[in-house]
Known about the structure:
- Keywords: NADP, Oxidoreductase.
- It holds the Pfam family ADH_N.
- Residues 14-335 form the Enoyl reductase (ER) domain.
- The protein folds into two domains: 3-126 and 306-336, Medium-chain alcohol dehydrogenases, catalytic domain (Quinone Oxidoreductase, Chain A, domain 1, Alpha-Beta Complex), CATH 3.90.180.10; 130-273, 3-Layer(aba) Sandwich (Rossmann fold), CATH 3.40.50.
- It is 29% helix and 27% strand.
- The chain is α/β, with parallel strands linked by helices and 340 residues long.
- It has helices at residues 46-52, 120-124, 127-140, 157-168, 181-189, 204-211, 226-235, 262-266, 281-294, 296-300, 317-325, and strands at 3-9, 19-26, 34-43, 69-77, 90-94, 103-107, 111-113, 148-151, 173-178, 195-198, 217-222, 236-244, 270-273, 308-313, 332-336.
- The mean pLDDT is 94.
- The longest helix has 14 residues, at 127-140.
- It is built from eleven helices and 15 strands.
Amino acid sequence: MATMKAIDIKDGKGPIENLFINDKTPRPKPTHAQALIKVKAFGLNRMDLLQREGLYPVPPHATKIMGVEFSGVIEDLASESESGFKKGDKVFGLAYGGGYAEYIAVSTHMLIHKPDELSWEECAAIPEVWITAIQAMYLIGGFEPGKSILWHAGASSVSIAGQQLSVGNGASAVYATARSDDKCDFCVKKLGATAAYNTTKEKWDDAVLKATDGKGVDIIIDYIGPEAFEGNLNAAARDGHIVNLATLSGTKLPAGANPDFGAFVRKRLRYEGSSLRSRDEHYQGRLRDTLVETALPKFKDGTFEAHIEKVYDWKDIQDAHRQIAANKTMGKLICVIPDN
């Protein structure tokens, strides 16, 4: 059996110190519509931390190897693969898992040709966060030019992508929240947000209502969960959509919370949760096509940017996980796999 190197976890799950490079990992074989990719770079996501700790439900058909976004070169193709790809093509894409490895087998329906204008690292920073932002903003949030939108955790990778998409595709106003002045300044000065609010210093929902003359915002993209729930109901506009993608503040309303549930009826609100990794290949393929149509041309001309906080050699995967766990990044963390 052919083997490869891959990031593994001692005992199957555990702390950062359990991460190591296993040089006896079985190399995957492409089947059906898959391609075998020699990985050049892969992106880190918060879900990787949860998966390492055994707290993230991996799809039943997915490999246990972490990593859902990558860039690399096609080494082999299965018989049912898309006709637009061939051996030797430089690509990047989204997978259900397996990116933390020298090789990954992934559906060609989730591959995108690498533009010459972008580096391996930049391409590895795009798929998960930009497709998640597109899903939340368009498919669930119902975004159209002229609508206003707010992105919580404004310096997180998905919100960095989302603010650029919102500004670049005709939002009437783009708001963000963060937990430091530096992150708020980043949202406004680097990403083009209309305003950003430091949630440790002000009641952000009241600030949003003041900025919108009491109307509120049409779409709110939320990862915070319970701590933002009351504010989301307050800050949402009539017929507003609140899209919840994570619950970073836990799963229970905090003590003393007093959400106005009457807002659901009074404002005709829609509150909807979603995830990306659990979606089927057809759904993810639609999102890939939307990314290619709405965002890729703007990456090529420099309008959009894959903001990267730091690039690591993959042998330093423990340090990379420590940095993302510290929650102080303003952009993606990327690992590269040097050529042997």
